[in-house]
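Hey, sorry to bother you again with one of my protein questions. I've been puzzling over a protein and I'd love to understand its fold better. Take your time with it, there's no hurry, and the full record follows here:
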Amino acid sequence: MALKQIYEYDSQIKKIYENENLLCVSDNQFNHFEYNLADFPTSAANTSEFNDLLNHFDLVKCSEDLKYFTGLLFLYKDYINNPLEEVIFFNGRTISIYDQNLYDRRYLTFVSCCFEKCYNYWDRIGDKLWSSSAKAIAFVGV
């Protein structure tokens, strides 16, 4: 694919971000509800198995990926199939059929990616909560 086409495709996705008001935490000064992800605390849980800084970067990346895949959903949504409008008549009955097209297949792939990114995002939130509780437990000495 030519670089010019990639830039045009990317600018189309950015227009969707603006039109649909899609934001990720890096667009929102790292604010997530009442918590600012840029002010991540250091933790007593920083071990070879857990690192607050890497967790922070994962949170930001998951949020950005979710924004991107959601933008792709808006790009394809007008072209997906509607099985309620695709019908055949058989033995006096109306039967809905589902003849998946390319756009529909891509749309469903991106929906799957959105679910994955949502899960990963909230999993990282859970890791951050665990990290904070580990720090509190270490401070109290339990």
